[in-house]
Please model this.
Amino acid sequence: MNNIERVIDSYANIFPIKIHLSLSLLSLISFICIIVFGFAPVTNELEQASGYTTMDLQNAKNRAEVRIILEQFEPVMDLVRLITLLDYLFIISGLLLFVSIHSINLRLTSSFRFRMISIIGILVTILSRSLDAIEDLFVILIYSNPDGYKSYFITAIHIVETSKWIAVGVEYILFLSALISIIYQLAGKNR
Model:
């Protein structure tokens, strides 16, 4: 863990707190804008045009279900690709947001417990965002090659998605803990 801790500390110390704060605010704005102006309207348009969303494709249990969804997606495949692109942008903005907040916490706290929250938080964030990217990759491989994709991609999507949601749950708990630590540290310095 010492090498990992050193790497994470190095990243946290590369930039001043103001840069980490700026990155986190920019990432938060991007995060919200991607959801409000990207995912919501594009998903709604895709569902109205095809009757399905990319979540339906991720939740399909067999090749027959995948085939039906992909047939409905054919006329609106540009929307499916756009949602995939938005998801990758969402992954990047979330990664920057969470890592920046944890970096701020690492810079402010000397408490072993709060430092470990942020070190583990960064690792879990990297894990959850990687799983999300892998899940998207399997979806891309399916819709890019609807007749030739491997059947195990369907199972892999479900396994990766379940793992991702477990990691996301832990990620958000650690993120909120880091925010509480930052507020605590700042309140203590302003006394």
